[in-house]
Amino acid sequence: MKIIYRHIIFLWLGLISSCSFGQTASLNGKVTDNGEPIPLTNVVLKGTEIGAATDIDGLFELANVEPGDYVLLVTSLGYQSYQTKISLSANESKTINIQLDASAQSLDETVVTGTLKPVSRLESPVPVEVYSPNFLKKNPTASVFDALQNVNGVRPQINCNVCNTGDIHINGLEGPYTLVLIDGMPIVSGLGTVYGLTGIPNSLIEQIEIVKGPASSLYGSEAVGGLINIITKNALSAPEFFADGFATSWGEYNLDVGSKIEIGQKTDLLLGVNYFNYDIPVDNNGDNFTDLTLQDRISIFQKWNFERSDNRLFSLAGRFFYEDRWGGEMQWTPEYRGGDEIYGESIYTRRWEVLGKYQLPLEEKLLLSFSYNDHNQNSVYGDTEYLADQRIGFAQLTWDKIAGNHDLLFGSAIRYNYYDDNTPATTEADNIWIPSLFAQDEYSFAPKHSFLVGLRYDYDQRHGNILTPRAAYKWKVSNNDIFRVNAGTGFRVVNLFTEEHAALTGAREVIIAEELKPERSVNVNINYLKKIYSDNGTFIGLDASAFHTRFSNVILPDYETDPNQIIYDNLDGKSVSQGVSANLDIAFPSSFKIMVGATWQDVSSTENGVTQQQILTESITATWNLSYTFHSLKLTADYTGNLYGPMRLPLLGDLDPRQEYSPTWSIQNIQFTYKGLNNFEVYGGIKNLLDWTPNRGNPFIIARANDPFDKEVTFDSSGNAVATPNNPYALTFDPAYVYGPNQGIRGFFGLRYTVF
User: Fold this and answer.
1) Which UniProt keywords are given for this protein, alphabetically ordered (predicted)?
2) How far apart are CA 274 and CA 322, in angstroms?
3) What are the beta bridge partners of residue 86?
């Protein structure tokens, strides 16, 4: 009988035990950043020892959790912490997907642009600004060119009211002073500068690095004012598939589509296609000219990544770009192309490029980089035809070596330039080989101090030997305080018509006063970086700089000596760009982020004792981004904007009634992004909230828009326009008076789909 009782007791205890174990719950889910999984994220239930780390796919699971109410805490380096209340019932298996927001303290990224080798941004002796694809998404645009309007000290400049072509200004310097690179390759220059920032899908961009100040000691000609390096993703960080499309109320349509394709066991292909279309002429300012050029553009990008032993690098990328754009009188159609009946500016652009990197199979770290591009442009500006071909080949071998306290880099490069056009500036085609040697040494002479010195030698058969030295000093006061000083020189060989669309458009005669000499510059930049971590989890980052650049032999267009001419020659004097700039990033624990930047600059030229502000250069600029995420609604709001101070503008004479200086103007945008659907993001908002356009306060923007071929203009014996009843201001047709976009307020709506 006792035995029977014992069995009953054990059975009862077993039932109780099994029931108690059956009362536990589990929690699982995925942690992502805009759909991209975040591995090694800490997921814990506060106040308990229950926790886990996400795997490579961002997945986690917490098992055998007692039923009850908890606070789930999710933390990952580089992201704002996330927490939410969780209620778990007995036998429940709950799934939760968590979206983390990147913190403002993005100061530990790996950067390569400043020194031609990968280093932590904090350890780089050269200040490098880094912008991620998430930054681009806060104000979605059809190209990186337009997206840079929200970068402090960087301004997309529209150079022509009709064709809307433009370039990038850094710290007030003209676009030709900015070198654009793709994956570190300087394949974009001269004729193709603006096209290097167009047509690469944002989802294939790993990051954008910007260096302000001369970098000619590493990159040669054109890196005089600064450089922009677009770094594309590799196979590990790219999505399996993505699609991102948006449309605006003006009738603009943009689509990015791409995929990662495995080919065999050791090869991955990244494929991306960008298509943009706008074909609805708009004339809101009533001058009978299109406010925005009509465009039909396609770009196909592919990048091959090959797996090799010892993780050695081998990648090969290529891109094809085609664009058909036109602007002009509202009645223009292609049948009027090149004629003098109805004015239009029509540009057909075809471009292809290839670039690659191959690490040699040696114990020493030697990297071979190479690129080649072919750019063809067939364009007409009214009845002026401009036909141009440019081909650039580039090969570079670098040796990265650490010897004690010395971080050494040695390199040799060869560059091939071919350029030909039908303008008076090119009597015969350029066919130039430029060999180069360079070396740099970063010497850590104390635990917190390092000094970098570099020198580049180029031989240009047109101008002989060219030396460009540079030096940099870094004092790491602490992990949260870094002080840098950089000094360097730069040079630039000019292809005038590839860089000055004002020389092609309008009725002015182009005068080249003399054989143009290479421009040279000397620059000094002081930078201070400060990080502050408060006890309540708030992060503050301050990045401030002061800069001074002095140019000699600078080439500037003279619009004022003769209103009917644009005169190009080397300045017999000096040109100076100087100022101060600061960026402030604040991230609050409440998911509220602030990014604010401001720059004051003085860009002037002095000749014959007279100093003038450079034309089309702003005195002040400011940018901002205010972002807040409503986690319960899975909704993020972004308010972005910029502000530009007065610019001196090119007038046509004393009678010209247009303003000599632009007002201080601002373009502001708001966007809402919903992330509550698996793999989807829905976004929409309003661009140019203030509906600002440059015709405000001006009687007109384009001079003589009613007579673009100057058929009704009367000229005196010297060729100067004379005031008449139908031309009271003695003007000729000129669309060069432009300092901002003519596109007013518009709504937009878009959808993103991403699979990792």
Assistant:
1) Cell outer membrane, Membrane, Receptor, Signal, TonB box, Transmembrane, Transmembrane beta strand, Transport
2) 11
3) 70
